[in-house]
Amino acid sequence: MASSLPVVRQIAWLAFLPQVVIIGGLIVGAGALGLPEPHLWGAGVYVLLAIVLRRVLSKHHRLGIRAFRRERFAEAVVHFASSYAYFTLHPWIDRYRFVTLLSASRMSYREMALLNLAFCQAQAGHREAAIVTYKRVLEHFPDSRMAQTSLRLMEPPVPALESEERVTLSGVETETR
């Protein structure tokens, strides 16, 4: 079942360079071992390695995404909180994710975990908890446009000014009271 919920993937294009080097190394290694068609062996080992690393090292993130896509937001909250805790305890895995997880994601797994956690909290009806989590994202990742935008949408609007002010719409000036 395809979910209609938004999924954002931001890619750090420079992170592809080390991955190309890794694939190249695997191909050269397969050739040095005398394996037939070393390019297939190298690519196959790379894919297998990527699957195993992501299954093992980002288990909670994967489970959170699966629950999120099935719209099981309370379950997803638990997995994303666990993912955040794991990558906080092992920051080097997240920092060097282009090698440790063979991931070209621009966004760290810690930031993704907090953003997904906040989104799922909001979807589960825990608006205040989501606002607190979005603010936490901005404490750790002040340039997070997703957190800034989400927080702006979730916080109550600023009441309109009671005094007379000028509003410009498409170059036409009008007065409001």
Which residue ranges are poorly predicted, with pLDDT under 50 across at least 5 consecutive positions?
Answer: none
Distance between the termini: 51 Å
User: Helix coverage percent of residues?
Assistant: 55-70%
> Which range does the strand content fall in?
5-15%
| Proper CATH architecture | Alpha Horseshoe
Major β-sheet, in short?
2 strands, antiparallel
CATH class: Mainly Alpha
The string of secondary-structure elements, in order, is: HHHHHHHHHEE
Q: Mind explaining what this structure looks like?
A:
This protein has nine helices and two strands, in the order αααααααααββ. The chain is mostly helical. It has a single domain (13-155), classed as Serine Threonine Protein Phosphatase 5, Tetratricopeptide repeat, CATH 1.25.40. It has a two-stranded antiparallel ribbon with strand order 1-2. The longest helix is centred in the N-terminal third of the chain and has 20 residues, at 38-57. The model has no long low-confidence stretch (mean pLDDT 84).
